[in-house]
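We modelled the chain as a single entity of 280 amino acids. Its sequence is:
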Amino acid sequence: MRMLGVERASNVGGALLRALGPKVGTHKTVTRNLRIAFPDMSKTEREALALEAWERIGRSFAETAVMDQLTPASGRLEIVGKERLEAIRDSGKPVVFVSGHLSNFEVMAAVLVASGAPVQVTYRAANNPYVDRQIRDARARYGIKLFAPKGGDGARELLAGLERGESVALLNDQKFSEGPEVTFFGQPVNAAPGPSRLALRFGTVMQPISVVRLPGVRFRVTAHEPIEVPSTGDRQADIARGVQAITTFVEDRVREVPEDWFWVHKRWPQAVYDALPPED
């Protein structure tokens, strides 16, 4: 992919998954997710959306190999709200960056690194060690060298980083069975409380980030209005409100550009899938 260059690599990855994605078992998850999120959308529209989503996932995977050529210095990124990132950098105080699996979400990490704000990015090792090494090497090429693994050790690393004034970045849109129940596209989901807990503990804000794919392997990265987690004295209720705020932020972004989201994972509880009526 690196030999092909940015645009050819992206085109090849997109074409491959557009062709192969609908043929694999995961496509059933994609179509069921689209039925839950957009119940009033016609089957024809959902099928077209699913194809476009597969293509964009393929592009993002292929672009992982050339991420060092998709940084702010490349001229391929438009950054909205750059002044917010600069203010975070200059303040010396940490924030909790939050987002979802939107478009090529690696681009968001590249923007955070380039902003100069010290930040730890959460990382879950890929099951295949060879693939995992490729991902780590690709990230290292554009400046990400610190990974906070999940679990007890990862939590301690994040806390230590925040104590030092380093921000943390977390994706918060995947299933988390032990988290508080919130609403996503009108249906109940469980979501990780980590970002809200960290913001409350360190008296800081959650800073939402989003990325949208533009034509020509270009992207728009936006630093949105910060989310302040309320501190009313009822800690569990405050955390739940923070989790809902993040979940609503992700839903709003998905509604804006649905083809950019990572539809291939089971986001809702099994009961929501079981309640889907038979499709014509």
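As a brief sanity check on the tokenised model: Residues 124 and 161 are 18 Å apart (CA to CA). The chain has one domain: 6-274.
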